[in-house]
Amino acid sequence: MKDEILHHIRYSLGKDAEHSSVYDWRIALSLALRDRMVDHWYRSTRETYASNAKRVYYLSLEFLMGRLVEDMAANLGLDREARHAIEALGQDYEEIVHDEPDAALGNGGLGRLAACFMDSLATLGIPAYGYGIRYEHGLFEQKFSDGKQVETAETWLTQRHAWEFERPEVKYRIQFGGHVEHHEGKARWISSETVLATAYDTPVIGWKGTWGNTLRLWSAKAPGAFDLESFNRGDYLAAGRSEALARTISRVLYPDDTTDAGKQLRLKQEYFFTAASLMDLMRRYLSDHDDLRALPDHVAIQLNDTHPAIAGPELVRQLVDVHGLEMPEAIEIVRNCLGYTNHTLLPEALEKWHVGLMAYVLPRHLEIIRAIDHDHRERHPGSPRIIEHDHVQMGELAFIMAHKVNGVSALHSELVKETVFEDLHKIHPTRIINQTNGITPRRWLYTCNQPLSDLITREIGDGWVADLEQLKALNEKSGDKAFLAEFQAAKRANKVQLAQWIRQTCGTEVNPDAMFDVQIKRIHEYKRQLMNILETVALWNEIRDNPGGDWTPRVKIFGGKAAPGYHVAKQIIHLINDVATRINNDPVTGDLLKVVYPPNYNVTMAENLIPAADLSEQISTAGKEASGTGNMKFALNGALTIGTLDGANVEIREHVGAENFFLFGLTAQEVQERRLQHGFARAAIEASPRLSRVLGQIVDGVFCPDEVTRYHELVGNLYDHDYFLVTCDFDSYFDAQRRVDVAYRSKTGWAAMALKNTANMGWFSSDRTIQGYARDIWHAGPVNTGGMEKIA
Ligand code: C3B
C-alpha cells in the first residue's frame, strides 16, 4: 500500500513525498485504493456478460455519496492497511480523510437512499448500474449570517475527483425542441437543439470486495466543434456561447427538496440523463441480444421518484421510432422493464409539466404520452388522465408505465393506495407494493462508529456487517452490567469527540454527560423543527421557574438546510439561532440547557453526530414523512427515538419494542380529522398555558429584541393555519420529553433500552431492502454470490 501511494505521488501527481500536500496524499491514497478496485470491477463485468444475467438500472437525479475514502477502503478490507501505510509515510490519516469534500449530489433522504442502494447492490453481487448527473456544483453550502441562512456555491469539482474514470468515448446526442413530422405512419423528430452526454464512471465495490458495480454519471457538453470563426473575429462571448449553454444542463443540482421546481432547465436535466441512460443500456443490450421483445428478461429499470419518469415515453420512442416496433407492443415491453418508487405524498412535490412546455422541449414525447394515455383509457374506461388541466402529471405517467409501484414504508405504501393513486390502485390492485427503506451498515455503523463497531465485533464477530440481523445476538447482553458499561463507554467516547468538534465549530461548550438530543434533516414545516424549538423554550422557562429542580441536562442539536426559496423554513432556522443565542448565554440555565446548530449539515456531519446521539427526534406530522432513514441510523447507533407514528417510525417501534421508544402525537387518521375542526389551532393554543406563554415570548421579541416583529408572521400562521399541527401535538410532545428526562436519569436503564435498539435494527439494513426489490420488482439476483445466498 505504501509503495502504491508513493507511486501515485510520483507518477500521477508529479510530486515527491517531501513536497506533497494533504491534498496530494489524499489523491494518491484514493488512486491507490481505486487501483485495488479495478480487478474486482472487471471480473464482475465479465461474469455478468458471460452469465447473460439480468442487469438492474437505478435511475436517480440524486446520489448523495458523501466522502468515499474510508468507505471504499473498508469495503476492500483495506481500512487498517490504508491507515498504517499513511502513518508509516509520516502523514496524519484523519487529516487526509477530512480533506475530501462530500460528493453532495443530492438534497436529502432520496439521494442518500440511492447511495445506500448502490452499496447494497454491490455487496449482494447484483449486476447494477446507477445512472445520474455529474453536477459541477452539488448542494449549496450553508452559512449563518446573524442567524440567517446564506447559500454559496458548492465546488467539489474544482479539485480532482480521484474515484472516477472519464469515458470520452461513451457519448450520446440528446435532442431538444423542434417539431415532429409524420410520413406513412412513421414519426420523425426534427429537433432544434442537441447536447452531448458524456460518461464518468465510479466503481462501487461491495463488502469484502466480492463484487463491483458502476455509478455512471453524465456530463453535458456542446456537440459541435469550437466556433473558431467568432473567436478569430474577436467575439469571444459568441465563441463560448454554445459550450456554456450546453454545460448549463449539468451545472447545478436543484436545491429543492420535496417541491416541484417547475422549470424548463429541470425538465431538460431530467430528460438529459434519462435519455442518455436508456441509450446506453440499449446499446449494451443490443451488443449481445437481438430480440427486443426479450428486453424485460434482461433489463430492470428503477425510477427513483418521478424525476426520471420521462423514461417511459423515451424508451417507447426508441422502440417505435428507432427500432420500428408497434406502439402498443412497445408500451407493454417498456412497462415490464420499469418500476417506480414513490417517495412522498406532499402535493407540492408531485411533478407536473405544462403541456406547452412539454411541447416546446419534448414534442415527440408529448405525442407518445397522449398515445399512452389513450391506450390506457381504452383498456380501462374511467381511468384518471395523465394530462389533466393542461399539465402532464408525472406520477400518473410513472404509475401507468411501471409494472410495480412501491412506497417506502408500510404506512406510506398504504397511504399511497388511499390517496395519490386511489383511482389507479382500483384499476391495478396488485401494482402498488411496499419496500421499506434501509441503510447500509457499512457506512452507518462499521465506518462511522468505530467504538461501537469494535465492541460488537469483539462480542459476536464481524458477520453482522453483511448480515445485520446477527445483531440480535446482542439482546442477550441487555442484562449484563459489564457489557452495558462498555456499550455506554463507546457512546461516551463519541460524545466527547463531538463536544470537542462543537467547541471548534460553534464556539459553544457542551457537557458530554448531558443528554445529546439531535434533530438533523432538511428544514421543512412537516418535519416540525419548529415544534422542537418551541419545546426548547418551554423547557427553558420551566428550568428558570425552578432552577434548583431535578433537571436532566440537555444539549439540543439541530442540523439541516432550507431550500433557498422556502421562506418559512428560513424563518425557522433564524428562530432556532436566535433562541440558541439567548439560552446559551443564560447563567440561570447554564449547563442544564444548550442549543447548537452547526451550519452546513451534510453526510459527513451526520456521520459525526449520529454515533454521539442519545435521543433521535423523528417528530413529523403523522402521514407526512414517507419513511425517513435518519431515524434508522440513530436507532442502529443506540439512540432512543422520540417520535410520532409516521413513516418507518412505526416499523422501528415494532422491531425495537414499544417500551424502548418514546411515542407521542396524533395518528395519521387523527390528523385528517383534526384538520376538519374549525379553529383547531387557536383552540389548542388556548388550552395550553405552556405553549401560549412560549408564543407570547416570541411575539414580544424575547429572542429578537433588535427586531421585535421578526416572528409575527410565523406565529400568526400557527394560530390561523398550522397545517402541520404543531399546536395540537405540542403538549403531548412536551410530556414525552419529560418521560425521556426521567428515563435518562437511570444510566443503566437507558443503556439497556439503547442496546435493545441496536440489537433489533438489523432488519433495516438496505441489504434487506434491495433483496425485496430484487425479488418483487426486478426479478434479478446475484451472478456470483461469493458465498452469499441466492435471493429466493
Ligand atoms: C424523502 C422522504 O421525504 C423521506 O421520508 C424518505 O425516507 C426518503 O425520501 C427516501 O425514501 N424524499 C426526498 O428526500 N426528496 C423528495 N423529493 C421526496 C422524498
Automatic annotation (TrEMBL):
Alphabetic keyword roster = Allosteric enzyme, Carbohydrate metabolism, Glycosyltransferase, Pyridoxal phosphate, Transferase
Q: Which CDD domains match?
A: GT35_Glycogen_Phosphorylase
Q: Which domain of life is it from?
A: Bacteria
Task: Write down the EC number.
Answer: 2.4.1.1
Question: Which Gene Ontology cellular component terms are annotated?
Answer: cytoplasm
Give one Pfam family, short name only. Phosphorylase
UniProt protein name: Alpha-1,4 glucan phosphorylase
Q: Which reaction does it catalyse?
A: [(1->4)-alpha-D-glucosyl](n) + phosphate = [(1->4)-alpha-D-glucosyl](n-1) + alpha-D-glucose 1-phosphate
Q: Which PROSITE patterns match?
A: PHOSPHORYLASE
The record lists the organism as Marinovum algicola
- Residues spanning the signal sequence: none
Q: Which cofactor does it need?
A: pyridoxal 5'-phosphate
Keyword match Signal: no
What task does this protein carry out?
Allosteric enzyme that catalyzes the rate-limiting step in glycogen catabolism, the phosphorolytic cleavage of glycogen to produce glucose-1-phosphate, and plays a central role in maintaining cellular and organismal glucose homeostasis.
